[in-house]
Amino acid sequence: MKKLLSILGAVNLTVTGAGNIVACESGKPKQIKKSKPPHQSEKPEENKQITLVSNWEETNGTVWNLIADKNNNVYVGTRTADYRGNLFKLTPDGTLSPVNSWKETNGTVWNLIADKNNNVYVGTRTADYRGNLFKLTPGGTLSPVNSWKETNGTVWSLITDKNNNVYVGTKTANDRGNLFKLTPGGTLSPVNSWNETNGTVWSLIADKNNNVYVGTKTANDRGNLFKLTPGGTLSPVNSWKETNGEAWSLIADKNNNVYVGTKTTRGQDNLFKLTPGGTLSPVTSWNETNGTVWNLIADKNNNVYAGTWTAGGKSNLFKLTPGGTLSPVNSWKETNGEAWSLIVDGNNNVYVGTTTADDRGKLFKSSDGGKTFVLVTSWDEDNGEVKSLVADKNNNIYIGTRIETSKGKLFKLIT
């Protein structure tokens, strides 16, 4: 996110945009006395072990992206400085190594995605409106995607469909963007009838029928929403209005309902549901002041969780049941921090990573269907802002953080 350094500048990082913190002379962030607010969500969960990944160096960069393939290899993308980054592979036995032939000048690793054949695609940011696109095979061969041009834009979003087609959304200048399709055979082409003025491609999702939904950001905090069929027909979603806001987040549940979270300038941010039949409607009882919907995730039971950002580095967390009941998550406090990352593991446990202040963050888990979220035991807020989360097939959780400008840590939570 699904998630954007340039936004950083804009939202704080929003996802990707927060203020920079100055390190002490020792190179370590200042230690800040922690106080424990007296509310239920601060109660730690027991019997879990968090360890720093062996051989990880903080100077590898802020851990911006994490992805796990079907063989339980974890790929780690980082940001070291403006427009630079590193790419690592962590094997199931714990061996961490740089990806062969990767160069830091390839760009900040903005997006990572793995297809069904364990090919990994890497999208980068090399300048304000430029980026590269690479393919990494299971055998370890890294190569630029054929016919990709850096001027196509920063690779803002990446997804794969069930047929292993890769869709690439970009950001160019003046709230514009491009949309491309990359076939399993390696043919890259612009999506037919896409217009760069449709907006920066902020979010992408594919449903079970291989329909692709495209959310964009246009000028003045507005956005568009499109549907791309497997046959290649692109059309605006019926009844969508640009004034609904920037389409920051998208998720599809098992029944092919699509949920859309937006941001506007008025602090009146929205959450919509789009049915497979094409009916778009605001989620019942959603309040526009709930915050910008930065993250959406669906669990195995088709419950949807929405993480928002509100003013002053705070957030809200909501649960929407398949029956349409929306409610704030019990025990969640707005002061838990910005809900930066959300994942669901194979056991339907929900994890939320947050950023608080001064390069710090929290990690929460719900193992009761979203009724309560508690702090994960042994997590130290000084581990850093939680910027990325991923679960492997064994339900081990990997946590990437930012501890100061261009530095970060990588942890493993053994469940």
Topology:
Blueprint: H1 5-11, E1 44-45, E2 49-52, E3 62-68, E4 74-79, E5 87-90, E6 96-98, E7 108-114, E8 120-125, E9 133-136, E10 142-144, E11 154-160, E12 166-171, E13 179-182, E14 188-190, E15 200-206, E16 212-217, E17 225-228, E18 234-236, E19 246-252, E20 258-263, E21 271-274, E22 280-282, E23 292-298, E24 304-309, E25 317-320, E26 326-328, E27 338-344, E28 350-355, E29 363-366, E30 374-376, E31 385-391, E32 397-402, E33 410-414
Parallel strand pairs: 1-30
Antiparallel strand pairs: 2-33, 3-4, 4-5, 5-6, 7-8, 8-9, 9-10, 11-12, 12-13, 13-14, 15-16, 16-17, 17-18, 19-20, 20-21, 21-22, 23-24, 24-25, 25-26, 27-28, 28-29, 29-30, 31-32, 32-33
Shape: globular
Overall number of structural domains: 1
- Fraction of residues in helix: under 10%
In total, the number of strands is 33
Strand ordering within the main sheet: 1-30-29-28-27
Q: Strand pairing plus helix content: what structural class?
A: mainly beta
CATH superfamily: YVTN repeat-like/Quinoprotein amine dehydrogenase
The number of helical elements comes to 1
Give the mean pLDDT: 89
Give the percentage of residues in beta strands.
35-45%
**Uncertain regions: pLDDT < 50 for 5+ in a row?**
1-41
Topology-level CATH name: Methylamine Dehydrogenase, Chain H
| Highest-level CATH class | Mainly Beta
CATH architecture: 7 Propeller
Largest sheet: 5 strands, mixed
**End-to-end gap:** 24 Å
Radius of gyration: 20 Å
